[in-house]
Design a protein that fits this description.
alpha/beta; D-Maltodextrin-Binding Protein, domain 2; seven-stranded mixed beta sheet; six-stranded mixed beta sheet; 45% helix; GL14586; Insect_Ionotropic_Sensory_Rcpt; membrane; transmembrane helix
Length: 604
């Protein structure tokens, strides 16, 4: 028995390099080297190479091919991962954006766990998968792999195969074509001729247009962003608003049709994400819809579950309260015109004058601006009274002027300037349930959850309406800045509200999509272009103006145009009192004059 032949047979059995002739191995290695150097290396300086097989022999053959390839290749840093069903599975966590995967089946792809590693990221990865299997198994395995790419939104996903005739072919899929929508049929996109790939574009553009395919949009009635109406003529749901204009522009740009899913019909308890659950609108988005809109504000939880592009709308959340809680009382108004130091000086000087005079009545009469019944005989006392009279006259004029000004302006005490000050004064915050869930992510609010309550409404206008019913109690509302300003402008008493200067938080709204959505790059690029050209700002301004016009009812317009009688009741009472006093004085003077005339006539 030849010992060398036995050793060589054992080596061949262990390494499985006899899967095909050496020329075919070198042919595959050249094809992979071309892909790495001319395609993947142009995208990134790093590369993750994953070997995942069911058969140990195929894994060793992959290693042999990689050794042949890497031996003469020094162009990029490589992270080599190997997975096999015969050994314990080892998890190598971390982002794997540019991937070269060597598998012998669909099961080998699943065993690599690469789907879980890239699940929490938004932008697309690149997958170049080399499938090595028997020719009669290629159609089935290829279909399963491409379906996996479609299910997990791997848009840049190519599969290279080598046939028994040593033909190296590259397949991919187009999710939207004129023949099908949201399907992964294998399409040959490249072919290796021994030196290079025939088509220089390895990852073709797949979303240049969507061929009129329906894109499901999850939304609800949230004016002025989305306004839903039922059209009786067409017996269908119609939508308008700022965000609808944005989606319609995307539909024209990418050539797709919009299929609306009305979230308003779903019970409100399903909106909540309790204990990290993905149930609610976002769970529906992951399973049924491609886009969601309707003033969905960005939060850490939503960004973790879904993908969102560039924010097209931002608005500060502000705290609004009624000034009635800080109105100065009647007694407090009497002391406000002067500080306490001035009052102490006046009281001290008054005590000094009383001590000098020993009788306080004339001094008090001069202080109140009244005339004396008789002058004192002493010139010293007359000099003191004259000095006191001329000294208090400027003070009396200033005091009366300031007092009249304060009563007329109805000034308030120092109003709060921050959310911390409101909570320190035991105010209670009211907002929508959607806003409350976002506020709970703030550390300040998380420690004072009992000070906030959410209303069962998605509209900030209804929250501001509820503020009027509190009657000046220590309650403040939290709403968006734009909605608050529009509400105050349409109110009959805009000066009765105070907007805290420091924002509670800043909201950023965006279009949400499933993780790794095909539409992410296109939507983000389109929003950037629209924002740079000013279209988003113009659409948003026009939508808000149109919404305000619809909100203004004739009664509200009359309140703004005319002053109500209740606002003039104080003036009516004052004028009635003054005319009554004048009438009594006139009647008194008339009676006194008649009495004098009668007395004079009797004497004559």
């Amino acid at each position: 028995m030849n010992t060398s032949s036995v050793i060589y047979s054992s080596y061949v059995e262990r390494s499985r390099i006899d899967l095909q002739v050496e020329e075919a191995n070198l042919y595959v290695a050249r094809a992979l080297r071309y892909v790495i150097e001319n395609v993947l290396a142009q995208l990134s300086a790093t590369l993750v190479v994953t070997i995942s097989t069911r058969h140990e022999g195929t894994a060793r053959w992959f290693e042999y091919v990689m050794n042949t390839l890497v031996y003469s290749w020094r162009v990029a840093a490589v992270q080599l991962l190997r997975f096999s069903t015969h050994f314990e599975r080892v998890r190598v966590p971390g982002r794997k954006r540019f991937n070269l995967m060597l598998v012998d089946s669909y099961e080998g792809l699943v065993n690599s766990n690469i789907t879980e590693d890239n699940a929490d990221f938004d932008d697309q990865e690149y997958y170049f998968i080399f499938l090595q299997t028997r020719d009669h198994l290629i159609p089935m395995e290829l279909g399963l792999i491409l379906d996996h790419c479609l299910a997990h939104y791997w848009l840049h996903c190519n599969v290279m195969i080598q046939t028994a005739d040593v033909d190296v072919l590259v397949y991919s899929y187009y999710p939207y074509t004129s023949d099908h929508c949201q399907a992964a049929y294998p399409v040959q996109v490249n072919h290796f001729d021994g030196q290079r790939m025939v088509n220089p574009t390895m990852f073709p553009e797949k979303l240049h247009q969507l061929h009129g395919c329906p894109i499901s949009v999850l939304t609800w009635h949230q004016p002025p962003f989305v306004e839903l109406k039922w059209d009786e003529h067409s017996n269908s749901l119609r939508a308008s608003g700022f965000e609808i204009q944005l989606v319609e522009h995307l539909a024209r740009l990418l050539n797709f049709t919009v299929d609306l899913i009305n979230l308003t019909l779903i019970q409100p308890q399903f909106y909540r994400l309790a204990n990290g659950s993905s149930e609610g609108p976002h769970g529906l988005l992951e399973r049924r819809a491609n886009l969601s809109l309707g003033y969905f504000r960005k939060t850490a939880r939503r960004n973790q579950l879904l993908t969102t592009g560039m924010s097209y709308y931002s608005s500060p959340l502000v705290a609004v309260l009624q000034r009635d809680s800080y109105l100065i009382g009647s007694l407090a108004l009497l002391t406000i015109p002067f500080e306490w130091t001035v009052w102490l000086i006046l009281l001290g000087s008054l005590a000094l004058q009383i001590a000098i005079r020993r009788a306080g009545l004339p001094v008090l009469e001069l202080l109140l601006g009244q005339s004396l019944a008789r002058l004192p005989r002493s010139w010293l006392h007359r000099l003191v009274f004259a000095h006191w009279l001329y000294a208090v006259m400027p003070l009396r004029i200033c005091y009366q002027s300031l007092l009249f000004h304060l009563i007329r302006m109805q000034l308030c005490a120092a109003l709060p300037v921050s959310l911390e000050q409101l909570l320190a004064e035991n105010f209670r915050g009211v907002c929508t349930g959607n806003t409350l869930r976002m506020l709970h992510e703030m550390p300040l609010v998380a420690g004072r959850t009992e000070s906030f309550s959410g209303l069962a409404t998605p509209y900030d206008q209804e929250v501001l309406d509820s503020l009027q019913k509190t009657g000046g109690h220590k309650v403040f509302a939290i709403a968006g800045m734009d909605v608050t300003l529009a509400y105050l402008r349409s109110s009959s008493r805009p000066d009765s509200y105070h907007v805290v200067g420091q924002p509670v938080n800043v909201e950023y709204a965006g279009l949400y999509m499933p993780k790794h959505s095909y539409l992410y790059e296109k939507v983000d690029h389109a929003i950037r272009r629209l924002d740079d050209t000013g279209f988003i700002h113009a659409w948003r301004r026009a939508s808000f103006v149109a919404h305000r016009r619809k909100e203004k009812l004739p009664q509200e317009q009359d309140r703004r145009r005319y002053i109500s009688n209740s606002q003039l009741s104080g003036v009516y009472k004052l004028m009635t009192l003054l005319y009554s006093i004048c009438g009594f004085v006139f009647a008194g003077e008339l009676l006194l004059q008649r009495w004098r005339d009668r007395r004079t006539g009797r004497r004559t």
